[in-house]
Amino acid sequence: MNYQATPVQEESEISLLLIDDDVELCDLVREFFAGRGIAVEAIADGRRGLARALGGGHDLILLDVMLPGLDGFEVLRQVRRRSLVPIIMLTARTARGDRVAGLDAGADDYLPKPFEPEELIARIRAVLRRTHRAAPPSTEVLEVHGVKLVPGTREVYSAGRPVAITTTEFDILEVIVRAAGRIISRDELSAAVYRRPAQPHDRSLDVHVSHLRRKLGARGALIRTIRGVGYLFCAEVVENGGTPR
């Protein structure tokens, strides 16, 4: 990996927590990000990393899988029980099963090692754009047959019951709800959520949609998979208490 780059002051103040036992990598990432207005706090073991992650104060967490103390999957699972902070997995374990396991546990994205630092920057930007940092609160409400989204506060309700979902899950749900009654292709959804084309063997969208169905309970059946094409939310959008369109 080549970490030499011309400093670019294009980021607002962003605080990242990097949990990785590769000391050299941590130093290189910290140095590379320093020129871009991104502060990196690095911790080298799973137990201390978990404690720091639960302490809050970071905009995003970069998390390795193979860690001493607690592995990254267990750190991820425990963080997700108490926090929806965006998390990107960084790991040399590139098997499809590992990627799915990370997404199943609540990761927002998954980047295999070795990686190019510019790609990591792009992934971080994309994930942060999908959080409340990306836009000021609004009063808009989307409601479809008991599934209610409040984009300004990123709240979701199913039959009046609050539903805890991750940043990526919210973005997927918002895209398909806004297009309710129309099939959204995998390429269209991937472009809207990840800012990149869908990859032939990438199961991340399927995993997130599966999670959404489960969390929405009986109303999860409103989300249909159109085999070989994409997804369909089977309802008409109702905005701000108005009539169906």
3D architecture notes:
- It is built from 8 helices and 13 strands.
- The protein is α/β, with parallel strands linked by helices and 245 residues long.
- The protein has 2 domains: 14-133, 3-Layer(aba) Sandwich (Rossmann fold), CATH 3.40.50; 142-239, Winged helix-like DNA-binding domain superfamily/Winged helix DNA-binding domain (Arc Repressor Mutant, subunit A, Orthogonal Bundle), CATH 1.10.10.10.
- The strands form 3 sheets. Strands 2-1-3-4-5 form a 5-stranded parallel sheet, sandwiched between helices. The chain has a 5-stranded antiparallel sheet with strand order 9-8-7-6-13, covered by helices on one side. Strands 10-12-11 form a 3-stranded antiparallel sheet.
Topology:
Elements: E1 14-19, H1 23-34, E2 38-43, H2 46-55, E3 60-64, H3 72-80, E4 87-91, H4 96-104, E5 109-112, H5 117-129, E6 142-144, E7 147-150, E8 155-158, E9 161-162, H6 167-178, E10 184-185, H7 186-194, H8 204-215, E11 223-226, E12 230-233, E13 238-239
Parallel strand pairs: 1-2, 1-3, 3-4, 4-5
Antiparallel strand pairs: 6-7, 6-13, 7-8, 8-9, 10-12, 11-12
Helix pairs in contact: 2-3, 4-8, 6-8
Give the % helix. Answer: 25-40%
* Top CATH class of the largest domain: Alpha Beta
CATH superfamily of the largest domain: Response regulator
Strand order, biggest sheet? 2-1-3-4-5
The succession of helices and strands, N to C, reads EHEHEHEHEHEEEEHEHHEEE
CATH architecture of the largest domain: 3-Layer(aba) Sandwich
- Mean pLDDT over the residues: 82
User: Main beta sheet, described?
Assistant: 5 strands, parallel
- The number of distinct helices, counting runs of at least 4 residues, comes to 8
What is the name of the CATH topology of the largest domain? Rossmann fold
- In total, the number of domains comes to 2
Percent strand equals 15-25%
Shape: globular
Structural class, judged by helices and strands?
Answer: alpha/beta
- Cα(first) to Cα(last) distance is 51 Å
Number of strands: 13
> Spans with pLDDT under 50 lasting ≥5 residues?
1-11, 236-245
Radius of gyration: 18 Å
